[in-house]
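Q: Structure for this?
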Amino acid sequence: MTRDEITAGLAEILEEVAGVNPDDVAEGKSFTDDLDVDSLSMVEVVVAAEEKFGVKIPDNEVQNLKTVGDAVSYIAAQS
Amino acid sequence: MTRPDVVVTGLGATTPLGGDVASTWDAMLAGRSGVSALTQEWAGQLPVRIAAQLAVDPSEVLERVKLRRLDRSEAIALIAAQQAWVDAGLADSVDPERLAVSVGSGIGGATTLLAQDDILEASGPRRVSPHTVPMLMPNGPAAWVGLELGAKAGVHSVASACATGAEAIALGLDIIRAGRADVVVAGGTEAVIHPLPIAGFASMRAMSTRNDEPERASRPWDKGRDGFVLGEGAGVVVLERADHAAARGARVYARLAGAGITSDAYDIVQPHAEGEGAIRAIAKAIADADVAKTDITHVNAHATSTPVGDMLEIGALHKALGDHPVLSATKSMTGHLLGAAGALESIAAILAIRDSVVPPTINLDDPDEGLTMDVAAHKARHLEIPAALNNAFGFGGHNVALVFTRA
């Protein structure tokens, strides 16, 4: 899976869970500061991403995923 | 120090009869029933297959993403509160630190609890929604309303079963009288049309099983009554200190003149056999309101269509108030909204005062011999209403009576 494909997959999840406009989702964007994803929604995003990409994202890793790019890198490395 | 007067300056509701107060009131005056057959697959196995479902689904009003984190009872409380807030025209004219919320629910987020338990069983704990707890907590509806309106003088969530909505309004009166707020957004909400609560009430033999005639199932005071019909909905009023309302030139619907609250200490679900607690609640409300009994020409009764409760209330009204008022049992049309009932029926009483009209009680075809008081059966009736009483009683032995008077 390319980084763009992972980004697109995350955009779908973010739209479903938090109503984020897919056009706003890019690697440089911060989940909390730019995309307005709160902590409970972030939990939902992580669980949905695990399922979509067939990866495991442990709770202690989630705090390191500040931006969409961080998440893309983590998922790309795991899958 | 004189006690501040409290008035009603805003109304909001979403009910089985309509998505707002105006459509609900029009339907009530027209004598329409909001009860229908439950067509959901799960209903087939139940002894009760009728209910009064919302006329307008919350998904038609709130955004999808917002709804994902709201229990249905929270969503409709928000909708009703927003309507009441806009109706009151408060916008920026109340200090957030002088704005409180008192919104309760009889059962709370039961449908969320049950749906998430299904997910837990099927998919494991990691799939349980992180929104589960704020969706099912009993203070959730009040908290969401407080959040939405920016209320910082306290957010309260009364729980007294079917007396909840009325008790939440009574608490709002107390809060303003005690000087803790100038405005209180108060009411009740309920949304538990789900097989488990229905099965539970049905096992108590509390519900009507007139499944073949949904619109005729809720029939307070009629000889053929066989239990209540479950309804869902929310009702919210804006209570305001009278001088605060006057200073901003607010439109005033009515005055909330008094409240009476008692408990039976008798049985967990059966009302006291002589209606002793109800009699005291009505008497206290009248004394608190300081109105002449003869001015109370209309009562919106609790009257749920159960064989025992309906007649006990008539006895209590006879003793505490007299036989002169014209009664309405609007549950004949809306079904029983449990924790929202007292709030919705307060709204009906307030509008009855405003419009000088007693809403009809439908399905009263063959009145019980014990019905010694006048009821506007089938059709609305014109009546001068200087003051109106609303009763609400709940499992647990809760009795609440509210007196509204013309502004």
